[in-house]
User: Fold O-succinylhomoserine sulfhydrylase from Candidatus Johnevansia muelleri.
Amino acid sequence: MLKYNYQQYEKNISIDTIAIRFGHNRTNEQEHSEPIFLTSSFVYNSAAEAAGKFSGDIQGNVYSRFDNPTVQIFERRLAACEYGENCVATSSGMSAIMSLVMGILKSGDEIVASRSMFGSTISLLQKYLVKFGIITHFVQLSNIEAWEKAITYNTRLLFAETPSNPLSELVNIQALSKISHYYNTWLVIDNCLCTPTLQRPITLGADIVVHSATKYLDGQGRALGGAVVGRNILIKEIYGVIRICGPCMSPFNAWIFLKGLETLNLRMRVQSKKAIELAKWLEKHTAVEKVYYSGLKSHPQHFLAVKQQKGFGAIIGFEIKGGKMGAWSVIDAIKLISITANLGDIKTTITHPSTTTHGKLSDDQKKESGIKDGLLRISIGLENIEDIRSDLSNGLNNLY
Assistant:
């Protein structure tokens, strides 16, 4: 597996251009758009060449489970966008996290992770990894002192989702990276909600960035995929898991994500702008008790968001009156917004986290993660914001 040498390329070129042009070496056909290599295997000119490529002595493609040209273009491009040394693409965001853990940890190792994160990530860390002797200690995301206090002799990984889904809680990445490296651990940041257009954790000291490419990197809810970006020494170990275990990204999905990256910067900035406008409106609505969005000046970490992000993203959490029944009545009154748990789509979506994305968590876990019965999460798309506001009003106005 080669280290991607993007550094010289990006010196004088913005991420807008990198996300559109980097990583594609044209074939002899001189295609303009990236080709899709829909093949399971590759042909060799001799037995010696086949042996050389399988052993790694000869550079070239071997098998699409771990070695596909279309997937490699996506990996190179995303690595460059994140300022990472290397990238490995996976079949989903959760398989990216699973492969990461399998690649760099062993039985007896420990993880310190934030309570504020996607429900399936919590379940993976707390329910399944423990079966293999990997223990996770959960702490409050924003409490730097709690992170340091939770580190033990066996801690190998610090894992944070910032901003968090769905409460927009943040951690100071630079401060956490100093602690992580002082104790000789690896810092992993889930950058799904910001993407590299709004936040680059590696430039702030993170060692690894994980993505659910299913979300904003695609942008249209078409395909599943994930990715791990970071130091070459770590990515090589994770690549080994992909090669042997097979949670790989398909060539067709990689091509979809390449098309998504081309418009990522435009989408993120427009959707973030719409989200700020809607968050301010929700904050003033009489049916809304609290809004979770770091773009609001009322957010306790607003100034940290301004410091380490280039925008606030398009995910808004908000609590409404009436608990679960109130939340469900708002959802049931929706006519335009899509009722679905996916996010990052150009179509606005809404969900009730307590019974969907975090539904598998126990009541105590939900309480620790701040997932209340009256909490709703909305992912702002590209529709006219007045139409979205009008649609939400149908449900909110029935609560008072």
